[in-house]
Amino acid sequence: MSEETIAVAMSGGVDSSTAAALLCASSERVVGLTMQLWNQRRLPQLAPDGPVAHRCCSLDDVYDARRVAEHLGFPFYVVNFERQFEDSVVAPFVSDYLSGRTPLPCARCNTSVKFEDLIRLARQVGARRLATGHYARARRNEQTGRWELLRARDSGKDQSYFLFGLTQSQLAGAEFPLGEMTKPEVRAAARAAGLPIAEKPESQEICFVPSGDYAGFIEAYLAEQGTGAGTSGEIVSSDGRVLGRHRGLHRYTIGQRRGLGLAAGRPLYVVGIDTGSNRLVVGEDAELSSDSCEVREVNWIPWESPAGAVEAEVKIRYRHPSARAVVEPAGPGRARVRFESPQRAITPGQAAVFYQEERVLGGGWIA
Q: What's the longest Cα–Cα distance across the chain?
């Protein structure tokens, strides 16, 4: 047996459970860690009438993770990170929506909680590395001495987009056992290991928004804090004509068409969110296209910072196809992306992630 202990971040799903099974099969000394991130009894007014399917990090998921650990025979612990999660993920999520941005909480959770707080705790229990069920790969470049993040072999499941913020020290302590596998191969491995969750469906909802109603969550969360979520205001065309009223800017995102409550006789989309004047700006589909964007809090991976402009393929949303672009450093932690062809609905708050073939060059938040 290996003398080195490896911790596995266990969500109770098929992917992280299979990662643990693969490590056990390779004679690794494994310890399982499940994060308690959000009190599911909090904000009871948001609770759905029936059970919520396909949501990660629920109490049922904790139970499933424990069952897997017992089945595979390794120690298992539940760690309470509710305070860290609220400070690093939930509060910024709410703040972003109130500021006219559309956040990406799973990416923030990875960099601020899972690969920061959890990996620190893992080291306290004797583990030098933290394995997860992400579909991604990491390797050390022997020529440069730096760690690199790579796309997964299964392009349809690749999750490197959500990991762009990992630092060199975080990548050095990370392990992705599923990076070379396809989803069908992972399911087969789960069945072969006899895992009790081998047929469990994938989680899809954000863990702290059980009903999928982001606006309802924001309003309930702020009411709990004793503040409001913003008031109704004008919906205006891009040339300033008043067309109607919105129900609070946190209810809208760039590119949105449904739920505007307008009868304009033609399709209209959200093209701008003006928090200063509390106005929602709508326009034609063509107005959503842009050939550039500014990116903040940029994390570079193969280098401390590139010497100059870099040609890359850039993803502006997880499911958005990569687009050819030039990424220009624009000062500490900032970059400007110039696309070869205009992109639709570049959305503040989402991540712009830079790739060269299989390598992730880095990424940041769209300003």
A: 71
Reported confidence tier of residue 48, pLDDT bands at 50, 70, 90: low
Q: Hey, what are 5's tokens?
A: 């202990």
Active site residues: 109, 207
Highest-confidence segment of 34-43, 71-80, 260-269: 71-80
Nearest to 104 by CA among 317, 331, 323: 317
Q: Which CATH number is 231-283's, of 3.80.30.20, 1.20.1300.10, 2.30.30.280, 3.40.50.620?
A: 2.30.30.280
The highest-level CATH class for domain 5-192 is alpha beta
Helix (H, G, I), strand (E, B) or coil at 88: helix
φ and ψ at residue 8, rounded to 5 degrees: -120, 125
**What residues does each domain of the chain span?**
5-192, 231-283, 289-366
Give Cβ neighbours of residue 367 (< 8 Å, ≥ 6 apart): 293, 294, 295, 296, 348
Closest CA to 327 of 288, 349, 289, 301: 301
CB atoms near residue 62 (< 10 Å): 18
Cα–Cα distance between 7 and 29 in angstroms, integer? 9
pLDDT digits (tens, 9 = 90+) for 308-321: 999 999 999 999 99
